[in-house]
Design brief:
alpha/beta, 7-stranded parallel sheet
Chain lengths: ~375, ~375
């Protein structure tokens, strides 16, 4: 299948590209290195440098024999989008091309505006391009579990059957997010759902939880094929940050009470979920929604797990509750359904002590590269 | 009160500005004449020409003695927004500054992109400006009843208490719109609701139905103070279009079965609703939502009313069911609640035969100006 990965340079985009390529699909990646530029501008360092897409794809071809086409450009610009869609004529489009960090979106007005404009413009352009150039192509869109927020009732998989005054209606599950970034994902869903109904597009919207890890089957060939690994407070996801904090001897920074509970998944399962979605497409005129995570943990749970894993390899790990910079419930009901991807065949990789220890072993090699000033970035919601 | 009207040149913006000014409020208007530009570009003629804001405000000062400040510029540009907010320091902001037409938003990719970017950027800038320059100011935002769509259960006023598996949660009423324009209004609501919760803004979101009419208390002074009157298929609202079609001897063009039902209101009631909202502000940290209409009618109901009114003054009016260019339910349940504004003191002006006859009498004066090619514009949803 010809699969176009938008945001193919990212933490998840690049591993996804390799994974689908390894399965024998014809893969192309498009990116404008926005994430790299934002890290530069905000003076954020990665744990280790990663090569650019030309180098990565050359390396991948060397180790795998598979070629991945590269398109460098800004997907907010229609002319570039049209050029890519016409040239590659995708059968599936995996859309990761968004500013992906909640704290970045709350940094200041400029960052908020960039997040809003970038995320909505790319999604709109993908919709218009699919309609114009490949109306039968399947759009696999990365959404987020954060779209649902933390309601006091069970979170169903995308939809909610409401009974009200003796009548019934099936709605898109009502959404209420905790950051501007997450709110742009709600808007993406609004937009996709409108055009699915109107133009009969074929869309899968993956409500993904926070991802951890960095190893995939393909990175075993060469460490230079590893994804980005942000451990800073802006672009780093929580478990990855805790692992680096543990290795650096920095107390694990739990926001507030730490009862904030979310659905998590291993990066390997992100790839599996995307692959299962691509290989089992939604129907024409269908918005198919999956909740994409494998286990739920509170932040306290994660901190405890990292502490235990650290202790096992002789690290002295402390947990510190710090003032919560975000506006969020620190104790809440959380019961999200997630059966759709399991039914498609997902075999989860759970968060064992071994997984954390393996990550720590890798991070230890870069211990001297860890910059303590990255860990705290002072992004406040208010 | 110092009240800033964004989109103060529009069909509703200008009459609102005069109305609040007549009440003794200190009023400023901001606009970039986007609507005029789009009409020019799409070759759409108004029934009669209206003066620009400098002329209108000069005229208004002459007849009323009240001064209205004018800011001409693009509210998508932060520098202009900041300049206006700093200079005028509003206590209330009435936000009409959006591309307001569903058919325009469905015209083509360029029009869709303009609608999406314009509407979201202005709303975001208003939020950022309120936070930075006047955090206590009350934002009165024009939304639309179209955000709700036509669900099979009662439409409550903004919020829905859901009971699910023995638990309860109060959600923003789930929204699902029938055009890109209406979808951008859903996104506005998403955005406002997020920042109300996060920054404690003070917001009233008015879910307005289609508006008809053109006379207000202030336009009685001078016909040059009348608002725009679009009768074309792109920017004209349905009752206004039917009145012009009746006068022109064109059959009233009912889309499909004509059972599409919506909540309507007289332009005089728009002004009253906005004034009541401004003079009774929402609390800090409150998103207050009102459903703003006074009566519900199907398109068939409206066509019948226009036919009867036309017959009374000797016009021969035919009704023609044409192929529906939109994707929408042509027969559906529709039971929207609308008590909030009545409780604030709204005294509705209902759609009587007299109201339609008065509009017809006015339109008859311009009968020779009516251009038949404006009536059908061939904007299809698919």
């Amino acid at each position: 299948m010809r699969i176009l990965i938008l945001g193919g340079d990212g933490y998840l985009g690049w591993p996804t590209a390799m994974d689908l390529s390894a399965q024998g699909h014809e893969v192309a990646v498009a990116d404008n290195y926005l994430r790299r530029r934002l890290c530069l501008e905000e003076n954020i360092d990665l744990l280790f440098e990663v090569p650019d897409l030309d180098e990565r794809t050359a390396l991948w071809q060397l180790v795998s024999g598979h070629k991945i086409a590269v398109y460098i450009g800004n997907l907010c610009e229609w002319d570039f989008v049209a050029e890519v869609f016409k040239a590659f004529n995708p059968q599936a489009v995996v859309h990761y091309a968004e500013q992906p960090a909640a704290p970045y979106s709350m940094l200041n007005r400029k960052a908020a505006t960039l997040t809003l404009n970038n995320n909505l413009s790319v999604t709109a352009n993908v919709i218009f391009a699919a309609r114009e150039f490949c109306p039968d192509a399947h759009i696999v869109k990365l959404g987020t579990m954060g779209e649902y927020g933390t309601p006091n009732i069970d979170i169903e998989e995308g939809w909610l059957e409401v009974e009200h005054k003796g009548r019934q209606h099936k709605f898109l599950y009502p959404r209420q997010a905790g950051s501007l970034y997450h709110t742009t994902k709600i808007m993406d869903t609004d937009l996709l759902w409108f055009y699915v109904r109107t133009w009969g597009l074929r869309v899968t919207d993956l409500m993904q939880g926070p991802v951890y890890g960095l190893f995939t089957d393909e990175t075993e060939n060469d460490e230079r094929l590893l994804p980005y690994f942000n451990y800073d407070e802006i672009f780093g996801t929580v478990l990855n940050r805790f692992v680096v904090q543990a290795v650096a001897g920095h107390p694990l920074s739990v926001y507030g009470k730490g009862g904030q509970t979310r659905g998590y998944l291993n990066i390997k399962d992100t790839l599996n979920c995307v692959r299962l979605s691509v290989e089992n497409p939604a129907d024409r005129g269908e918005l198919r929604i999956f909740n994409q995570f494998t286990e739920t943990f509170s932040v306290n749970d994660l901190a405890e797990k990292v502490k235990e894993a650290g202790n096992q390899i002789g690290l002295k790990v402390e947990i510190q509750h710090v003032t919560n910079p975000r506006i969020e419930a620190e104790e809440h009901y959380y019961h999200p359904r997630h059966t759709g991807l399991l039914e498609l065949g997902l075999k989860p990789h759970f968060l064992t002590k071994e997984v954390i220890v393996t990550m720590m072993g890798f991070v230890l090699k870069y211990k001297n590269e860890i910059k303590p000033n990255q860990i705290y970035q002072n992004v406040k919601w208010v």
